[in-house]
Write a structure and sequence with these properties.
mainly alpha
Length: 152
């Protein structure tokens, strides 16, 4: 019996090749000017993540799980993890502007004021945690409505 190599449709193959070509082009452009700086940045971020950030958010997550577990609600940790992860991702992406480290460069490149990034990030974080709290409250309300009344 002859086995076929699963390659998908011609359109999938074309998109796959195009994405590799685009990634190769971006890599060549990125590494053309300062390949050592880019390599140093990639290695530095990997080391920073693995040696500093991962232990920090692992300890924070364990504290949340233990705190909620002590109250008998260990499954509620997801309602803290998701908004914290999204907020952390936004902080990671926008940190130079949130911290004000690149305010002058941002203003000269865009002509816009860099003020307000910290405020917006804090507001987005508050909305994420607020929405998560509302979802948890709705889940708890739904769970109490389904539970039959206790017989005496």
């Amino acid at each position: 019996m002859r086995r076929r190599f699963p390659v998908g449709s011609p359109l999938q193959l074309l998109l796959f090749c195009a994405s590799f070509a685009l990634a190769a082009y971006a890599g060549v452009r990125l590494l053309a000017d300062d390949w050592f700086g880019v390599a140093l940045w990639i290695v530095g971020t990997a080391v920073l993540h693995d040696l500093v950030l991962l232990p920090l958010y692992s300890v924070a997550d364990r504290a949340v799980v233990r705190g909620l577990g002590a109250a008998g609600h260990r499954e509620w940790a997801l309602y803290v993890r998701v908004p914290a992860a999204l907020s952390g991702l936004l902080l990671l992406v926008w940190f130079p502007l949130i911290s004000g480290m690149t305010a002058r460069r941002y203003r000269s490149a865009t002509g816009l004021s860099p003020d307000g990034f910290l405020t917006r990030w804090l507001l987005i974080t508050a909305v994420l945690f607020g929405a998560s709290a509302v979802l948890l409250a709705l889940r708890l309300r739904r769970a109490t409505k389904r539970r039959p009344p206790a017989a005496h």
